[in-house]
């Protein structure tokens, strides 16, 4: 296991700008992390730099304080699981799982026992003696996951969107199995995905990326309740955070249409584009508050989301259970959940 650090790490491809903007970061030994962001934001590039498949154009990669930037993959002692399964079709499931161990000289009996243990965790016990070529894509990816998990001496296990080819109804089961395995063998795990559900249910800490930049690292709760960047507020949550352009006057946000919203803190003069943010979970359609126009109500089963116009802009709010749409709808906002952003970054209020 290893504590992985980035020291002024950045990467630019020839003829282009930064694929990864300069960053300093630490992945603690034994942690379960996720790299979350849309396609093209730099997640896989960062993962390949950790594994040694790609050398950064700037900065250093540190394993337990040792510079490994120039070391090849095989000398970093990491396991990487890719988006599509990598298995030996002519081998049985048991042989595939044991192969990384046998290749490192682990005695046959120990390798067999470890392969059977991992097979049990992944639901592959019944398939241990089947050849991989006779299995479907789901089972093959389970083998690929198992080969990454079977070694208990790795510095880190890196997952690059490993559930893409898995049948949707099995994804929750596999995430739960990976989480349970991490509790049993607390090796550093880094999981790359564009799916917020995968990231938030697997990881203890999530790094959210946008356009080559890590914009926030935090617990799932922190990312939801206090997004440090408007991108985090928009990308995490369904629906994402509401954002309204405004100006701030002391402890009030003034909307373009003249509406005023009381804030939990006073703010100094803020430069650039200023926005007020609040999640739909903390905005409620009510009989008192700001006047709004209801466009429609989405019934999501466990809750209803009212799609509104506030100050001429789209806005999502919660419609309380059993409450009909008021004849003159108003919007109530939880003042403790209001955030102010300046040029996309969370602004600090004054005590």
TrEMBL record:
Residues 4-236 form the ABC transporter domain. CDD domains: ABC_Carb_Solutes_like (cd03259). GO terms for molecular function: ATP binding. Keywords: ATP-binding, Cell membrane, Membrane, Nucleotide-binding, Transport. It holds the Pfam family OB_MalK. InterPro entries: AAA+_ATPase (IPR003593), ABC_transporter-like_ATP-bd (IPR003439), ABC_transpr_FbpC (IPR015853), ABC_transpr_MalK/UgpC-like (IPR047641), Mo/tungstate-bd_C_term_dom (IPR008995), OB_MalK-like (IPR040582), P-loop_NTPase (IPR027417). It comes from the Bacteria. Belongs to the ABC transporter superfamily. This is ABC transporter ATP-binding protein. It comes from Roseomonas populi. The lineage of its organism: Bacteria, Pseudomonadati, Pseudomonadota, Alphaproteobacteria, Acetobacterales.
């Amino acid at each position: 296991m290893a504590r992985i650090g980035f020291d002024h790490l950045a990467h630019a491809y020839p003829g282009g700008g930064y694929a990864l903007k300069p960053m300093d970061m630490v992945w603690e030994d034994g942690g379960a992390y996720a790299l979350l962001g849309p396609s093209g934001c730099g997640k896989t590039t960062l993962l390949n730099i950790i594994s040694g498949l790609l050398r950064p154009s700037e900065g250093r990669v540190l394993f337990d304080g040792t510079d490994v930037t120039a070391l090849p993959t095989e000398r970093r002692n990491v396991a990487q699981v890719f988006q599509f399964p990598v298995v030996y079709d002519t081998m049985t499931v048991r042989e595939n799982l044991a192969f990384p161990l046998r290749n490192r000289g682990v005695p046959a009996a120990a390798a067999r026992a470890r392969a059977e243990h991992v097979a049990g965790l992944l639901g592959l016990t019944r398939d241990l003696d089947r050849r991989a070529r006779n299995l479907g894509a789901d089972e093959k990816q389970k083998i690929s996951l198992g080969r990454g998990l079977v070694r208990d001496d790795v510095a880190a296990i890196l997952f690059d969107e490993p559930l893409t080819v898995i049948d949707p109804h099995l994804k929750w089961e596999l995430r739960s199995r990976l989480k349970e395995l991490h509790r049993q063998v607390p090796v550093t795990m880094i999981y790359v995905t564009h799916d917020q559900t995968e990231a938030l249910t697997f990881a203890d800490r999530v790094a959210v990326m946008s356009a080559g930049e890590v914009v926030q690292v935090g617990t799932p709760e922190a990312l939801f309740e206090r997004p440090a960047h408007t991108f985090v507020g928009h990308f995490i949550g369904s629906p994402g955070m509401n954002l309204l352009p405004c100006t701030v006057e002391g402890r009030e946000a003034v909307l373009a249409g003249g509406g005023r919203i009381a804030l939990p803190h006073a703010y100094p003069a803020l430069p650039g584009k200023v926005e007020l943010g609040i999640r739909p979970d903390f905005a409620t359609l009510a009989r008192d508050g700001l006047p709004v126009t209801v466009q429609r109500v989405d019934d999501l089963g466990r809750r209803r989301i009212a799609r509104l116009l506030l100050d001429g802009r789209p806005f999502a709010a919660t419609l309380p259970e059993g409450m009909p749409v008021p004849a003159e709808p108003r919007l109530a906002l939880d003042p403790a959940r209001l955030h102010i952003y300046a040029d996309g970054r969370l602004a600090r209020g004054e005590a």
